[in-house]
Predict the structure.
Amino acid sequence: MADLTYKALAALLDYPTAPLQANLAEVEAALAPLGASNLRALQPLLGELARGDLIDLQEKYVETFDRGRRTSLNLFEHVHGDSRDRGQAMVDLLAMYREAGIELATEQLPDYLPAFLEYLSLLDHAAARERLADIAHILRAIGGALARRASPYAAIFDVLLAAAGEKPLAAHETDDEDDTTFKAIDAAWEEAPVNFLDAPSPAGCGSTNRPDVQTIQIHRRPR
């Protein structure tokens, strides 16, 4: 998978904006290395983003990824939940980003999947595939939940699983209970969240004044 392909997939997974709609042709061109079958699978999403009303697309995005934990795009949400282990995992991930010479120019958490995909775009093919394989079980969980809801975003997760050398989503993986009901959401957030601000972070995190640092351009969506 070419570097720009990961960046294109990151753009498709991020909050829909007018610039994304205006540049969908370039995004689709960057997806060409995926091959015809993967491009066909992504067409419903590309078409929806191209022709949909932006406000409607943004509301649908929030409904898809911010309501219920199963489809959260914050990777460690699926592994650590609100435990303190998540704080150290964030620190470790930031260190991995910095080792690649990048800093987050964003208020999103470092485990935000589009940011992680932009990081992969800076690695060579083998390293990117290995890093993607490390989170394959999370991708499968999110993708399965999206497929169960018939979301066009599920196609992205099939593409990522293929890039990781994994099998595609299977029908039985979509048979999970609905976590988008108000009862399920209340249950998921019943415990008070843990404050990770006490966790140590790499010096200079968020700085963009180093000439050798590449910046991941992911922007926090408005609420």
About this structure: The beta strands are 102-104, 214-216. The mean pLDDT is 78.
